[in-house]
UniProtKB/TrEMBL annotation:
Keywords: Metal-binding, NAD, Transferase, Zinc
InterPro entries recorded: DHS-like_NAD/FAD-binding_dom, NAD-dep_sirtuin_deacylases, Sirtuin, Sirtuin_cat_small_dom_sf, Ssirtuin_cat_dom
The keyword Metal-binding belongs to this UniProt entry's keyword annotation: yes
SUPFAM superfamilies given in the database record: DHS-like NAD/FAD-binding domain
Organism per entry: Denitromonas halophila
Domain of life: Bacteria
Residues reported in the UniProt entry to bind Zn(2+): 135, 138, 156, 159
Protein name: protein acetyllysine N-acetyltransferase
Domain spans labelled Deacetylase sirtuin-type: 1-256
NCBIfam families: PRK00481.1-3
Gene3D superfamilies: SIR2/SIRT2 'Small Domain, TPP-binding domain
EC number of the protein: 2.3.1.286
Keyword Iron-sulfur in record: no
Length: 256
């Protein structure tokens, strides 16, 4: 099937759907200039950090608890490399599609907050948000536009405890409420599952696509590369997210 035919088929599925589950990953924000995970990757690849440890260890929950200054060193580097980036056409397109289909949901791995910034409804940020800080002592929260000017690690203005981003670090559990919202969405039924810009490496990301394929629910993957769900989906669009979703919106006759 040609790209033109595939986009036409995907557009037809979206036009008919009332409840769409969008699963998004770092590839969605690539057109905003953000690195994909490996990532965050581009900063470290397979090299050790300046502390002589892998980035996964530096950004672990255990390290944050025991040596927060180490974790914050790399969190600050990552944020600085992403600072100034803005949501792209793909984020706006998904927000528009969800707004037109109130039963839909966006389940994202991204911590950049771009889905939230464009007003996406029914959003689950399963890995959290880099711009929301919480105190490890008193639990009070604080939202920041970026980390410029922050003391590293930042102290809580209320109790003086160490603050951390409200994100899931390596070795930490996922937020149960987010997983429950995903489960409820699937139990209540969906008309279409779309995996966009994610390698589907984690079971809770690939799982809904696999479930939908087995249940006969149409599935779509938008990703230039091949992933563990590529062979399972109904339609595979090998394009960047902004390009593909722009084409789809144009075919739907709507603007983001």
């Amino acid at each position: 099937m040609s790209d033109t035919d595939t986009l036409a088929a995907v557009t037809a599925l979206i036009r008919q759907a009332k409840r769409i589950l969008f699963i998004t990953g770092a590839g969605l924000s690539a057109d905003s200039g953000l690195p994909t995970y490996r990532g965050i990757g581009g900063l470290y690849d397979d090299k050790l950090t300046g502390h002589g440890i892998p980035i996964e260890k530096a950004l672990s929950g255990q390290m944050m608890a025991n040596r927060p200054e180490v974790s914050w060193t790399y969190l600050a580097q990552i944020e600085a490399n992403c600072r100034g980036a803005q949501p792209n056409a793909a984020h706006h397109a998904i927000a528009r599609l969800v707004a037109d289909r109130p039963g839909s949901m966006v389940f994202t791995q991204n911590v950049d907050g771009f889905h939230r910034d464009v007003g996406t409804a029914n959003l689950v940020e399963i890995h959290g948000n880099l711009h929301q800080l919480e105190c490890t002592e008193c639990g009070r929260g604080r939202r920041v536009p970026d980390y410029a000017g922050l003391q590293i690690p930042p102290g809580c203005p209320t109790c003086g405890g160490v603050m951390r981003p409200d994100v899931v670090l390596f070795g930490e559990d996922l937020p149960r409420d987010g997983i429950l919202r995903l489960e409820h969405m699937l139990v209540e039924g969906v008309d279409l599952v779309m995996s966009i810009g994610t390698s589907s490496a984690f079971p809770y990301i690939a799982g809904p696509v696999i479930w939908a394929a087995e249940a006969g629910v149409p599935t779509v993957e938008i990703n230039p590369g091949e992933t563990r769900v590529s062979a399972l989906v109904t339609h595979r669009v090998q394009m960047g997210a902004a390009h593909a979703l722009g084409e789809i919106l144009a075919r739907l006759g709507v603007a983001a």
